[in-house]
């Protein structure tokens, strides 16, 4: 039930949904005064949620601080890689990698330079309707295809959200009794919630953030004045994460 409700809430918290509702009201309401006021609200929200400057400030405040490789320990037994970076095209038997696949690329870099000994991929399907395509299984096959030894890959393929990622990973790795070191790897915007869940599950670890959205604060026209449609998606990610973190804290998951 929690999984289903979280998907519904995620939809309702999308700024694009708010804008669509507002513009539909503007079209169909008969009261001219209310329509004018709603138009001002909708236009203001549209300008705000497509402005790169404000989204950058918000992401900068939320994202977890980046850790340089020089700040890491020389060696970790496991790099725990969180999924949520791809979809699978069954027609062409091909993985469609998203921006967050930087999680995988950074993990491979850490593996090949010897920082992490084994790669532990956690996550099944986060899709509400399709639970058959398990992301960790697909990524394991991909890693095998590019030459990673099977002995260096562990997967957890039944979890559907971040809390289940942590709980199921703890059942598999038994962090409270095993004398292993862990490096948690996920996107900068997602690390705050992920780290809370994994600590709650009994893990002691260092963090390594990837695919940061926040950049230097600048007043250049393309970053301060000109709207960008892609910024709307950044706000969707951020609002989803902040809401998810608050709900997880209230539920005692992190």
Would you kindly provide a written description of the structure presented here, covering whatever features stand out?
With 254 residues, the chain is α/β, with parallel strands linked by helices. It has 2 domains: 2-63 and 225-251, no CATH class; 69-210, HUPs (Rossmann fold), CATH 3.40.50. Helices cover 49% and strands 15% of the residues. The protein is built from 10 helices and 7 strands. The strands form 2 sheets. It has a 5-stranded parallel beta sheet, with helices on both faces. Strands 2-3 form a two-stranded antiparallel sheet. Strand 6, helix 8 (191-200) and strand 7 (206-210) form a beta-alpha-beta unit. Helix 4 (52-62) runs parallel beside helix 10 and helix 7 (162-173) crosses helix 8. It is elongated and about 65 Å long. The mean pLDDT is 91.
List keywords for this structure.
49% helix, two-stranded antiparallel sheet, alpha/beta, 7 strands, Rossmann fold, 254 residues, 5-stranded parallel beta sheet
Quick overview of this protein structure:
This protein has 254 residues and is α/β, with parallel strands linked by helices. The protein is built from ten helices and seven strands.
Layout of strands and helices, then pairs:
Elements: H1 2-12, H2 15-28, H3 32-49, H4 52-62, E1 76-82, E2 86-89, E3 94-97, H5 102-112, E4 116-122, H6 135-145, E5 153-156, H7 162-173, E6 182-187, H8 191-200, E7 206-210, H9 221-224, H10 230-251
Parallel strand pairs: 1-4, 1-6, 4-5, 6-7
Antiparallel strand pairs: 2-3
